[in-house]
């Protein structure tokens, strides 16, 4: 493994640590009665409003349509994510120290699996909140569900909901791209070494 590949792995691992201080995801809601918008940010260990009272306002609106309250302390993933990310970062630094291609492939595959699992869990969380509505809801619309979008915009009654990676999520995406570059460079070097004639062989 070249110094460049090792450096890319180290930078990617350290960039992943940004997720401990910057929010991973952002959900925004805009409607005529809320022209300034409401929003919440999903952090690695918490969910907070974009503005001070946004989360309370969202929970108040959700109550009318029968959605459960969003209570960060009741979401187990928010306790697990800091640990999982810490293990992945430490593993990345270990891979860079080892300098071997196979551990890099295993680590990169684990990153992909963790990313897919995280996105699926986020989708499942939104599905549960948007579909499992209270029978005592003040507003009931037959056949209507309120699952927020996984990515991009979605119309929910008179609200336009949008869901995008926030700054910490973007940092994770960039880290993933760096790992992809490290993989490509590592495989190219391996292929070049395999294709090179043995020492002492005449051209």
Structural class: alpha+beta
Give Rg in angstroms. 22 Å
- The residue ranges in which pLDDT falls below 50 over 5 or more consecutive positions are none
Strand content: 15-25%
What report would you give on this structure?
- The protein is 53% helix and 15% strand.
- It is an alpha+beta fold and 203 residues long.
- Strands 3-2-1-5-4 form a five-stranded antiparallel beta sheet.
- Strand 1 and strand 2 (34-42) form a beta hairpin.
- Helix 1 packs antiparallel against helix 5 (167-195) and helix 3 packs antiparallel against helix 4 (101-131).
- The longest helix is centred in the middle third of the chain and has 31 residues, at 101-131.
- The radius of gyration is 22 Å and the shape is elongated.
Features:
single chain, alpha+beta, 5 strands, 203 residues, 53% helix, five-stranded antiparallel sheet
